[in-house]
Structures are given as C-alpha cells and as structure tokens.
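Inputs:
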Amino acid sequence: MEKKSFKPSTMLYPLPAVMASCGTMEESNIITIAWTGIICSDPPRTYISIAKQRYSHDIVENSGEFVINLTNADLARATDLCGCTTGARVDKFKEAGLTKAAADIVSCPMIAEAPVNLECRVFKVERLGSHDMYMADILAVHVNEDLLDENGRICLEKAGLIAYSHGFYYGLGSGDLGRFGWSVMKPKTKKRINREKAAKAGQKRK
Ligand SMILES: Cc1cc2nc3c(=O)[nH]c(=O)nc-3n(C[C@H](O)[C@H](O)[C@H](O)COP(=O)(O)O)c2cc1C
C-alpha cells in the first residue's frame, strides 16, 4: 500500500480523556486532559500537559498538585463539558453536576463520581512549547469498591472507561482482544486460565 506523507502532528491514538481536578475544596477547577500517561512504574509517576492559556495552568503551576479522575461512559458529557468551558467563567463542578470529595494527601478535590482517582504532586515541569508538562508522583489511588473482585483485585474492565481519538470519545467496551502475554502463553497456562474462567462462569450461574 502506498503511503501519503503529512506534516508533523499529534497523530497518535487512542488517548485517555481524563478530568484533572485542581485548586482547593473551596476554589476548585476541572480541566479535561488527553495529553497524559504513565512515565514510570517505580515510583509510580505520571504527567499532564497543560497549555499556558488555560485557567487551570496557573492553578497547577502554583499549587503543584492535581487529581487525575478516570472517566467512564456516564461521565462522557461532563468530560466534554470540562474540556469546552473555562473555570475563569464557570464553576465546572456545579455545571457538570459533579461532587467534590476530599483527597487523603493533596488539597484539591477528587471527583466522587469518577471510578478511579489518582492523587498527584508535581516533581518537575518541562516547558515544551504550547504546553507545559507537569510530571508528578502518584501519591494515592482510590478505586470504587464495586470494581474489586472477591480477592480484592481491581477489575478496571468493569469500569466502562472511555478513550479519545481525534475528536471522538469511544467506550472501551468489553471486546478485549486477549490478555497481556497471550501471544507467548504456554498451552498449560492457557488451559489453566480457561478452567478458572469456566469455574467462575459456573459459580455465577448458581
Ligand atoms: C478531549 C479533550 C482533551 C483535552 N486535552 C487537553 C490537554 O491535554 N491539555 C490542555 O491544555 N487542554 C486540553 N483540552 C482543552 C481544555 O480541556 C479546555 O481548553 C478547557 O476548557 C480548559 O479549561 P480551563 O480554562 O478551566 O483550564 C482538552 C479538551 C478536550 C475536550
């Protein structure tokens, strides 16, 4: 297949669409962020890149704290709203019908309706151009109890999370294409996993 070349751009997919809350319990804001990801496992570290003109930019710049709130299908409208309105004019918690919940460590509120919240504290800022990249330690993680199985394992696949790709939001759904490592899995392991799956399905039917 022939390829057509384009000028350099941010052509990567899919991306998360998270709501980052910042500020304080009294004076808070929410910004929708797609430029985010994990940059280190141990210690767990993440980043968000914020354009200089955003209202949230100076809040995160000055406080050095934010919360990453994962988004699901129920929060798709709020996610879009927080990405299309500015905290300079709108109280986004009120406008999007979201509830503030106190975090354990950082001063900014978490979004109670989000299935997962990551409390973050900035350790380094990179001035990249249009955006400043706030690299942060993940200090605490909060997960809705209904996402835990009987062994306490987090089942993120139950959260109905959404992703963003070039102007559209997509539900991740349950159509997984295989678990991590399936391409190199030993037949013995495959059999064991299938046995466990069948046993679980049997238990559910009872
Ligand atoms: C899906 C989506 C992803 C976005 N990702 C980013 C981002 O990564 N960085 C950024 O600075 N703005 C991003 N924006 C734009 C801001 O969310 C938007 O300008 C918002 O109104 C800023 O709010 P604020 O002025 O209250 O800070 C995104 C918007 C949407 C809808």
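The chain is about 20% helix and 35% strand. Flag for discussion at group meeting.
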